[in-house]
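go over my protein:
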Amino acid sequence: MKKRTIPGLTVLLLFFSLSMNSFGWSGNEADQYDGILKNLYVVKTDQAIEIFIEIEGVYIHQVSQYTDPLRIAFDFSPVDQILSETYYEINEWSLMGIRIGQFHPSIVRVVFDFSESLLAYEVEKSDNILKISLIPIEEEIPPPPAPEPLQPVVEQPRKEIAAKPVVAPPPVKKGRLNTMIGLTAGSHNIPDVRFQEVYPGSALIYGLHLSRTFFSAGDFDVLLSVDGKIFSKPGAATVTEEEARFTMTPLSIGASLLWNTKYFILFGGGGLDICPYRETSPLYPFPGFVKETANGSHFQAGLFLRIPGLDALRAKFYYKSTKALTINNDIEVDLGGREFGFSLVYGFSVF
């Protein structure tokens, strides 16, 4: 019994080994012929959009057209790898972009997306490059109609035609300037009683103005502005009557609503203020001065006058009311106040 069983097992093992080698060889050979989409690049000319698709390996392609949405699809098989980018934004003529994806394990699909109408295409294949040319479809222009035969001219009696009045076209409305920069000068008064005891009256305040329109609707604009100024006033110490000086450099950030008319622009708004200041006085110990910052808010209103013949220049007249509190030696002082001023600004448009 043992002698008969061994030859049978030997034949069975030999058949199983040959079968496994056969299947393994077939799988490797199939993988060897799968293609690879290596690259895609686009060239735009005056006559066409040329797309070059580089595919390594033996392949076939099939073309399909779809209408909702408009697109042309090229299927390549057997191709199972994509090494190029998967999306190319074009936006030339009606071609919006090109998409690449694995439609099937052995099929790669290249889709051309169109916005309004399909483009005609031509395909050229050479070695491992497939060239697709997308060409606009030219509309056929019908030939002009044949001219009518000439007729003899018969003179008609002339009629007097009354001249019609010429109506001038309406003036073209120019676009509004969205950016302004200029110089500001005015009078600033701090009415706080403690401040007035040392620095009575008002003083000059001057600086720079910068503003930008961020929203417009009809005749109305929303304006954001930044103003940097200098205010300096001499005074006398309340005890010794020795000279003292107060200097403040307020920075104002605000928003205003503008109403545009033919000859002027009305505005009103508010914002925040940061007021660094320095006070020099013989009452302070060495070094003889203090430096602090007062923070507050403001309201302002006024108008811009348009200067005839100088569209870019504006004359600004304004009133501003500020409240900015500070505490020095446990004494609270309001450094805000009333301000009347004038600005000469230059307007221009930035993007």
Notes: The CA atoms of residues 206 and 252 lie 13 Å apart.
